[in-house]
């Protein structure tokens, strides 16, 4: 038996997720598996929050519709020509590939941060599902400005949902993929139905009337910033920055037969991050015409952005079910990714148990509505932190020959801490975060410059250190 076969057998016994070896040919999946997963993951819980949040920023019709069209295209291209291309070349998880470049000690800190940030995102999706489950119990919904749990009913519902979602995620990639395939058609139908019902309630009968819902834009709600075309385009491109230019989805596309499977992300972007965002925004537009919302706005308070009641008002029980499933289909793969990050820190612990740990952290985060209510800012922040590490992998893959550096230098030189990686990330993160804070620059605007600078500095520092 070859060494690879021995390792493959060990991986099968440990759970079959191939955390530290390339995925074998027998386990590769066709593009159909990814189509369902991406459609389900991105036509999901976040969409019920992000769509309404766009309205709170006072965005105009042109800026929203055209900005989303182009921003999502850039995201698909990033997945196809960066993430999927590298994933099928090496077929390794992000965490093991980074370990080969960065060294175990450095990547441990990255994995911890990555896992926690994914847990917080999954927690926001548990929050989304809870707003639907709580309707029959007459639960008080979280407000846009809420940060803490608002009652015992909320706590019990979030804990129960978190337990179920964590159990599904702990079963591994195949179960996560199957769950997404089963749920995504229902969720997509719900978004379409919500959009149609909302258009009827808004009495929209023509394109011009549809356009006038946003019109030339308005003043942002209290506590929100004003979004322009560039805010929408750049934010929608980097809403999943950690997953595409940050290379997190190497862990997913390593199972793909061909790099062309990267095109399946278009299902997520244009069904979820386009149609679903706009449909959810329409639901919120209906709510903003209600006496309750007008009363809140008149006293300077932002109306609540609770997906459950919005969907319930539009399509009833089907809307409640759709919101619950939508939260699941985002939380499941997100907790799975977080589990893989923790697995890299604790390689002797089974995939099942590290995923349960990740799910527990996500459930605790779900108790705090702030992660969902401030989702636009949180998504920009976690992408900004994690994306530059993806530049390390991308720049080494494409430019190591031109730079004259050794690939996977930490593994080759038996380094535990590759200082070239650390200082490249620290300088790029520190410089552009300072610019964002000091000059009040929207954080997504500096994500790409930070990513490019990190990659370039990595090549320069690696050349110097390896030569020395």
TrEMBL record:
GO cellular component, one term: plasma membrane
Flavoprotein as UniProt keyword: no
Transmembrane segments: 61-82, 115-137, 152-170, 182-199, 227-246, 267-287, 314-331, 352-373, 379-400, 412-435, 441-461
GO molecular function: cytosine transmembrane transporter activity
Keywords: Membrane, Transmembrane, Transmembrane helix
UniProt name for this protein: Purine-cytosine permease
Organism: Maribacter ulvicola
């Amino acid at each position: 038996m070859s060494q690879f076969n021995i390792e493959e057998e060990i991986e099968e016994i440990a759970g079959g997720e191939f955390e530290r070896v390339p995925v074998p040919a027998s386990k590769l999946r066709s593009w159909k598996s990814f189509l369902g997963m991406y459609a389900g993951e991105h036509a999901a819980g976040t969409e019920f929050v992000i769509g309404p949040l766009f309205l709170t920023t006072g965005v105009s019709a042109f800026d929203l519709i055209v900005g989303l069209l182009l921003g999502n295209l850039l995201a698909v291209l990033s997945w196809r020509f960066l993430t999927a291309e590298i994933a099928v070349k090496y077929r390794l998880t992000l965490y093991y590939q980074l370990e080969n470049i960065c060294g175990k000690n450095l990547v441990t800190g990255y994995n911890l941060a990555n896992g926690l940030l994914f847990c917080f995102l999954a927690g926001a999706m548990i929050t989304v599902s809870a707003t639907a489950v709580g309707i029959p119990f007459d639960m008080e919904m979280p407000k846009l400005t809420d940060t803490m749990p608002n009652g015992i009913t909320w706590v019990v519902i979030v804990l129960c949902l978190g337990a179920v979602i964590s159990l599904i995620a702990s079963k591994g990639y195949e179960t996560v993929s199957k769950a997404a395939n089963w749920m995504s058609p229902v969720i997509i139908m719900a978004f379409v139905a919500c959009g149609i019902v909302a258009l009827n309630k808004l009495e929209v009968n023509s394109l011009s009337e549809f356009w006038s819902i946003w019109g030339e834009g308005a003043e942002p709600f209290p506590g929100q910033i004003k979004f322009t075309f560039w805010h929408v385009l750049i934010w929608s491109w980097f809403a999943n920055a950690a997953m595409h230019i940050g290379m997190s989805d190497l862990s997913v596309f390593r199972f793909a037969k061909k790099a062309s499977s990267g095109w399946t992300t278009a299902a997520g972007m244009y069904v979820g991050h386009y149609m679903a965002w706009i449909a959810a925004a329409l639901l919120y537009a209906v709510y903003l015409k209600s006496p309750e919302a007008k009363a809140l706005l008149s006293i300077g308070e932002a109306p609540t952005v609770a997906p459950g009641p919005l969907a319930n008002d539009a399509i009833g029980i089907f809307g409640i079910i759709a919101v619950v499933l939508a939260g699941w289909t985002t939380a499941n793969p997100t907790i799975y990714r977080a589990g893989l990050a923790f697995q890299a820190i604790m390689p002797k612990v089974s995939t099942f148990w590290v995923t349960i740990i990740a799910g527990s952290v996500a459930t605790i985060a779900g108790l705090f509505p702030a992660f969902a209510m401030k989702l636009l800012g949180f998504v920009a922040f976690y992408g900004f932190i994690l994306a530059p590490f993806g530049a390390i992998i991308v720049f080494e893959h494409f430019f190591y020959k031109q730079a004259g550096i050794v690939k996977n230098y930490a593994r080759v030189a038996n380094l535990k801490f590759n200082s070239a990686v650390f200082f490249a990330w620290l300088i790029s993160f520190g410089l552009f975060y300072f610019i964002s804070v000091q000059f009040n620059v929207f954080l997504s605007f500096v994500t790409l410059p930070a990513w490019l600078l990190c990659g370039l500095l990595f090549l320069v520092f690696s050349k110097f250190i390896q030569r020395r």
